[in-house]
Amino acid sequence: MEKHNFKNSKLLILILISNNLLYSQNETIVPKNGTIVFIKKEIITDTLLYKKSFEKVLDKVSLEIKKEASIGKPCK
Q1: Rounded CA gap, 11 and 4, in Å?
Q2: 50: which residues sit within 8 A by CB, 6+ positions away?
Q3: Which residue, of 24, 32, 38, 42, is most buried by count of CB atoms within 10 Å of its CB?
């Protein structure tokens, strides 16, 4: 009989913990003063390196598009 109660208590504790975790994810935080704002900001420190790498990526993408286009064309 005690093993059965122990299993029930484990299940009850698990349900209570999971319920608290699910509730805490949906709860909004309202500060007493001011507002909380999240902003995504990207900072590029080396613009020359960024432009070179971006051009390489564009070259690779254009080659892949050309390959896909040539595969899709019917043979004459």
Answers
A1: 11
A2: 44
A3: 24
pLDDT at 1 over 60: no
CB 44 within 8 A of CB 50: yes
Handedness of CA 57, 63, 69, 71 (dihedral sign): negative
pTM of the model: 0.35
Q: What are the tens digits of pLDDT across the range 3-37?
A: 566 677 888 888 888 777 666 555 566 778 877 77
Question: How many Å apart are CA 66 and CA 72, to the nearest integer?
Answer: 10
Residue keyed to tokens 């790498």: 53
User: Which residues, 6 or more positions from 44, have their beta carbon under 8 angstroms from its beta carbon?
Assistant: 50
Contact by Cβ (8 Å): 36, 29 = yes
Q: Supply angle C-alpha 54, 58, 63, rounded to 5.
A: 150
